[in-house]
Each structure stands twice: as structure tokens, then as C-alpha cells.
Amino acid sequence: MRAKAAGICISFLMGAGLCLAQEVQQTTSQYAAKLTQPDYSQTYCSGFVTDQKVPDEMRLISGEQSNYKITFARGDYVYLNRGMNQGVREGDRFTVVRPVSDSVEVPWFKWQDKLMKAMGTAYSDLGQVRVVKVHPNVSIAEINFSCAYMQRGDIIRPFAERAFPPFKEAGPFDHFAPISGKPVAMVVAAKDFAQTTGTNDTIYVNLGTNQGVKVGDYFRIFRYQGTRASLLDIDKDTQYKMFGFGATPQIYKWNDLPREILGEGIVLNVSHNSATVLITYSTSEIFSGDYVEVE
Q1: Residues 56, 154: Cα–Cα separation, whole Å
Q2: Bridge partner list, 219
Q3: Which of 1, 14, 51, 179 has the CA that lies 20 to 30 A from 237?
């Protein structure tokens, strides 16, 4: 009898779990279907790369509970090194950024260091603050939006609205898209210098306003077989042979075979020689060293 009751309970639990999973999946699908543009965090936490000097005279210098706090986040009060004598007023909004570099000093592909230098300096978006109290030479601000932790020395910049470019109309992904004939570049780095990226991740490519790129443009992301610029392709000639697993009757070069379409993304931010791209769709992992073309 107890075994029968236990079986009934398990059936109920499994049924409830299945219903819950179906509801979550349906809710997620509905949410994804309703998205018509990048959300606030995707837009204002995307970071950027620029070859222009970012003014850094205004800094976050400390905050409340600084005797033991080494980082600050949303809801904390922080101190800025500018006050009413420098034109700061209560209610002013600022963004907080920090120059960043890859702590792993090993390039992911052959030209990464050279391309990154040509693009400029990478900056991380840390969040936003609003001034609540002004002193002659110091201001108190509340962190009202946070992307990551803030710390002493972070750069404070006047808040600037960013565009929310609309996503293109939903449709089937063209896995075998022909070459567009438009400018081609590379995925030079990813946000936080991540090694692998995919849907909803952010990457930085070496095309910008100098090459006609603008916010809202779409990039197609792709890869060639057999290229040896990336650390991923350690073994030579894998595009036509693999030890112990067969070989083709003839030798193929990387440009003899169809390219692999990996995904696409929309431009969120652009500077002279770089663009910040949100990956909107991916079929597999995307790495620094993969290629992009303007759609």
C-alpha cells in the first residue's frame, strides 16, 4: 500500500516538475520573442575600445565604510574628487569606467596584440552614480546602477545616453550565407577577455567609423578550416587529415573549403577603429581570432 502511495506521489511530483519546466520554457521563449532591442545592462555594461584618450581627471577616491571596504557596488555611497568649485551639482549623473588589459599575457591568435594596439585601449563599464551631496572640492554619490565592482581610482565620466539599436526582424539563420563582399575583420577580444563567447556575450572587432561601421549594423561571424593563426588549431593540416581517423585523396588548403558560419551580432558602440558587438545568435563557441564581415 505504501509502495503504491509512494508511486502516486512520485507521479504527482514528476508531473508537477514537467509542468513547471514547460512553463519556464514557454516563459523564456515568450520573453525572447518580445525582445526588440538590447536591454539596459547589455547596452550600458558592454565596455568599449577606443584610440582616443579618455579624460581621467575625475576619479572615485573613496566611500563610506572605507576602513574595511575595498570595493563598492549598487547602493553604496562613494566620494568623487570634484565638487561645487569644479561645477558639480546635486543630481548630476556620471558613468564609471576602468581601463583593462588581459592578465594572461599569451595571445590567443597570431595578430592579437598588434590589432589590439591599433584599436586602442579597452575600457570596462562599471556602472553609474548620482551625486547626492556636494562639498567645495569633493562630492558624495550613490551607485544607482552597477555592472561590476568599483574601487578607488576608477574614472568618472559625465553620463551620456547610448542608443538601443533595434534587432532585425526575426527569421531563419542562414548557416550557409554567401560572402557579403563588405569589410572583413576579426574578433580581436571579448568582454573581460573571455576565451569563449556565444549568444548574449560581447566581443570587440577591429572595424569602426573609419571603415563606415555604425551603431545598429550587423556582423556575420565565421571561421576557416585549416588556418594556423589561432591557438585552437595546434595540429597542422587537420582540414584534410587526422592521424588515425582518415585522410582525403588530395591536399586541401584553408581557402579551398567552405567557411563555417558561427553566428551574428549587432553593433552597440563604435569608435574610430573598433566596434562593440553583442552576439545575438551563435551556433557554436566563438573565439578571438574568428572572422567577421559586415552583413
Answers
A1: 9
A2: 265, 294
A3: 179
